[in-house]
TrEMBL record, chain A:
Name of the protein in its database record: Phosphate transport system permease protein
Keyword S-adenosyl-L-methionine: no
GO molecular function annotations of the record: phosphate transmembrane transporter activity
Residue spans crossing the bilayer: 30-54, 74-104, 116-140, 171-195, 215-236, 281-306
InterPro entries tied to this protein: MetI-like, MetI-like_sf, Phosphate_PstC, Phosphate_Transport_Permease
UniProtKB/TrEMBL annotation, chain B:
Chain ranges of the ABC transporter domain: 5-248
GO molecular function: ATP binding; ATP hydrolysis activity; phosphate transmembrane transporter activity
Entry superkingdom: Bacteria
InterPro entries given in the database record: AAA+_ATPase (IPR003593), ABC_transporter-like_ATP-bd (IPR003439), ABC_transporter-like_CS (IPR017871), P-loop_NTPase (IPR027417), PstB-like (IPR005670)
Gene Ontology annotations of biological process type: phosphate ion transmembrane transport
Species name: Microcella putealis
Descriptive protein name: Phosphate ABC transporter ATP-binding protein (PhoT family)
Keyword terms: ATP-binding, Nucleotide-binding, Translocase, Transport
Gene Ontology CC terms: membrane
Length: 320, 259
């Protein structure tokens, strides 16, 4: 989320005005309006969220469904579930995305690489409802025996603590579905950045006697680092806000638990809004919108952190 | 640590296209050999076959042999990675790794293959290599800054420092000064004079004055026409090539009648 303030056109500052060409004027105005529109849309969403959240923030928590002790008590398990499922998705999908992208950009023969790239893009076009159905219908039953085995044999490890879910519809399944969903966008971005690695730098590494993997570590990955981070953040943003896949896979409870394989799982903010909104009334509508505001702020924070990370080593970015 | 290079009947192909035909020459140790010739005559392609860098391009292969101290670079079981550690290369445009500091750039080749080096050894090597490349005094107080912040000429000397840090037998330079201003060019040429004491140097250049200034021997490459392979026309002492060449095409080229 970059907010670029348009610079004042320098032409206006000069005393002797050069001839203004219609095309230049049209384009500069069009660009200005488009840029400004982003700010307007963002502001409109933010104002809506804040205005509609205020009643929930000031209301008596006893009016909320389920009578939580306070707004924070209500939203905290959802925040946790949102971050936890998105983090699971990212941890599983990011290495895979980098691997696929490297294979496409530096290992695969050209024809295979093109076909693979096309397939990955196709994966991005599958609607999230379909992923949700796949999660319930295929992944959960198929992976349940694995979960049972993990609980039996590695149950001492806190993440794999029992009792195991009988349906396989756990937060880990939701994380896997989310991971598959965010894989295409991350792969596509990583692949594009890796392909842009200057041949000069690749040759520099090879001429020093680097193997292909060392060349990738020396030239491709450092050059692609900002791109990898941007891709991860785009994926994370999608995972944080993803609604249907999570809502379909999980039967949510208001708990905070790191256990991956149990049948009681925290829900996410977006899934909770989708599931609760049809039956919400009165101040509960405002409550749901307030959780939406929290999600908005989380996403904003994630993006800001990513931008900070990318900018921190700007001198070394390869852009100069 | 410098070694003799013998090239016997070398043909270079890009797929079906024959880029260089039938080159045979011998490069003496501790000497500077310049390759000159018009654009597209295959001199850059040929210099890249001396450390197997042409193989980076898909479909490129050679026939014939290149012997470095009697060992064929294209023999069975020879690893191109090891060849490139023996035969270093400096490119047309300076290419320090932008994500690395000056110090890390110098050490880039040394730390390959998980070779470990103690910090004090690394410090010594960085100083020695940068001094070898005449860059130490200019960068000694900013070794942890990115290499991309240096001027073009400094970057190119950083690349030379990086190449000599791994102590190769041979250094190949593919038009090392063509992206530099005259002052930086002079600095590199002086450096080549010094490096000659320890290394075998092969340099491709478009600048005939440069070839006559820095090299002991000169090879003139030419091409009969577009789509034809480049050939080695004449190879002799630089003074002979520039004063009394035996082939008419060489004389025309060095005297500026074409090219």
């Amino acid at each position: 989320m970059t907010a670029t303030t348009p610079r004042p056109a320098s032409a206006e500052a000069l005393p002797a005005k050069p001839a203004i060409r219609l095309g230049d004027l049209l384009f500069s105005r069009a660009a200005l309006w488009s840029g400004g529109l982003i700010l307007v849309i963002l502001a409109a969403v933010a104002i809506f969220l804040v205005a509609q959240s205020i009643p929930a923030l000031t209301a008596d928590p006893a009016d909320f469904v389920g009578q939580p002790a306070s707004f924070l008590d209500y939203v905290w398990p959802l925040v946790f579930g949102t971050l936890w499922s998105a983090a699971l998705a990212l941890v599983m999908a990011l290495p895979l995305a980098i691997g696929i992208a490297l294979f496409i950009s530096h290992y695969a023969p050209r024809k295979l690489a093109q076909a693979l790239g096309y397939l990955v893009d196709l994966l991005a076009a599958v609607p999230s409802v379909v992923y949700g159905l796949w999660g319930i219908g295929v992944l959960a039953p198929a992976i349940q025996p694995v979960y049972s085995w993990l609980v039996d044999n590695a149950g001492w490890f806190p993440l794999f603590a029992g009792p195991v879910s009988g349906t396989g519809r756990t937060i880990l399944t939701a994380g896997i579905v989310l991971g598959v969903m965010i894989l295409p966008v991350m792969t596509a971005i990583c692949r594009e950045v890796f392909l842009q690695t200057p041949v000069l730098h690749e040759e520099a590494a090879l001429a020093l006697g680097a193997t292909r993997w060392e060349m990738i570590r020396m030239a491709v990955l450092p050059f692609g680092r900002p791109g990898i981070i941007s891709g991860a953040m785009l994926g994370l943003g999608r995972a944080l806000g993803e609604t249907m896949a999570v809502a379909m896979v999980l039967s949510p409870q208001a708990i905070v638990s790191f256990a991956l394989l149990q049948s009681a799982n925290p829900s996410t903010i977006a899934a909770n809004i989708a599931l609760s909104f049809p039956e919400a009334y009165g101040v509960n509508v405002n409550l749901l919108i307030a959780t939406g505001l929290v999600l908005f702020l989380i996403t904003l924070a994630v993006n800001s952190i990513a931008r900070y990370v990318v900018n921190r080593r700007k001198d070394f970015s390869g852009a100069n | 640590m410098s070694k003799r290079i013998e090239v016997n009947d070398l043909n270079v192909y890009y797929g079906k296209f024959k880029a260089v035909e039938d080159v045979t020459l011998t490069i003496e140790p501790r000497s500077v050999t310049a390759f000159i010739g018009p654009s597209g005559c295959g001199k850059s392609t040929f210099i890249r076959t001396l450390n197997r860098m042409h193989e980076v391009i898909p479909g490129a292969y050679v026939e014939g042999e290149v012997l470095v101290d009697g060992n064929n670079l294209y023999g069975p079981g020879v690893d191109p990675v090891l060849v490139r550690r023996q035969v270093g290369m400096v490119f047309q445009r300076p290419n320090p790794f932008p994500t690395m500091s000056i110090r890390d750039n110098v050490l880039a080749g040394v730390t390959l293959n998980n070779r470990r080096i103690s910090k004090s050894d690394a410090d010594d090597l960085v100083e020695k290599s940068l001094q070898g490349a005449n860059l130490w005094n200019e960068v000694k107080d900013r070794l942890d800054r990115p290499g991309s912040g240096l001027s073009g000429g400094q970057q190119q000397r950083l690349c030379i420092a990086r190449a000599i840090a791994v102590e190769p037998e041979v250094i190949l330079m593919d038009e090392p000064c063509s992206a530099l201003d005259p002052i930086s060019t002079l600095a590199i040429e002086d450096l080549i004079e010094e490096l000659k004491q320890d290394y075998t140097i092969v340099i491709v250049t478009h600048n005939m004055q440069q070839a006559s200034r820095v090299s002991d021997k000169t090879a003139f490459f030419n091409i009969a026409g577009t789509g034809m392979p480049g050939k080695l026309i004449e190879y002799d002492d630089t003074s002979v090539i520039f004063s009394n060449p035996s082939v008419k095409a060489t004389e025309d080229y060095v005297s500026g009648k074409f090219g």
